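Lab notebook: predicted structure, single chain.

Context: the supervisor wants predicted structures on file for every construct in the current expression panel, including those that have not yet been purified. This is the next one on the list. No modifications to the sequence; it matches the entry in the shared construct table.
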Amino acid sequence: MAALTPVAESMQETWEALVAGRSGIGSVTQFDASAYAVKIAGEVDFNPEAMLDFKEAKRMARFSQFCVVTAKTLLRDAGWEIPPEGSPGLGTIIGTGMGELALLESMHARMLKMGVRRISPFLISAIGNMAPGFASIYIGAKGINLAVSTACASGLHALGMAADEIRMGRIDAAVCGGVEANVAPMAFAGFGALRALSKRNDDPKAASRPFDRDADGFVIAEGCGLLLLEELDHAKQRGANILAEVMGSGATGDAADWTSPAADGEGLRRAVAMALRDAGQEAGDIDVVYANGLSSPLADLAETQALKAALGERAYQVPVTALKSMLGHMI
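Prediction complete. Output recorded below exactly as produced.
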């Protein structure tokens, strides 16, 4: 596993920060937010030129920089050797909610002010598929290359799809997970217009509060989290340090509303039931739930009801945690 988050630049340091309860939410520094009602975000302390060649960094939007750096770290830590000819059995399936708005915004402003001839050819690096695309180039992954864009569920959908590709024998392994870098004016304006964001500017570290009766919205954040998902025998043959097993997954929709889930959490309940079925497990086998925990009263209530419906009495016994309380919402 590898991560680049608002609390640290590595997976190990991120874990230590989470265990210590250290929040990565603070005042926005990437643009002047003084005119906005919301002035807080979860930003990554990131210097691309310290981790990438200058020319490499210049070609990529920020979210692609995150993805390339994290993917390189992931394969190095996993002991995956990249042959000169690349790896046809290695896929790249990565979720991203919006691509990168900041670069699109800046290029649009430049075009209006200076004309179409002043647009950078690297503008296209802001679209969503470029993060897994660049990652595959720099790690030599020649298997399936796919960007998944399903808002909050993008990273989990990428993981589930990677598992399916491996099960079907199409690839041996996949770099999968999620990435986002949208601490940008348009994101703050749009989500602000929806009244979806927390306005706790005076207490940013307590702003993201999943399942709290005083929750007033989520906090926009950025970062990248990737893992190497690998077919079991393939992992054993190369002596991989196996950390966990993906036993099953479930994906559904509730066809309810474009901003809120079904009030009773019906779609999520079916997804949990589907995942348990796929894994051959029962509610009593669950030891912990890592929840979405949006820090939105409606969404948190729906998620709570869904977990109770799906897990029954076990829902009252199993610990439930939500990392957004410290990392914010990386969309």
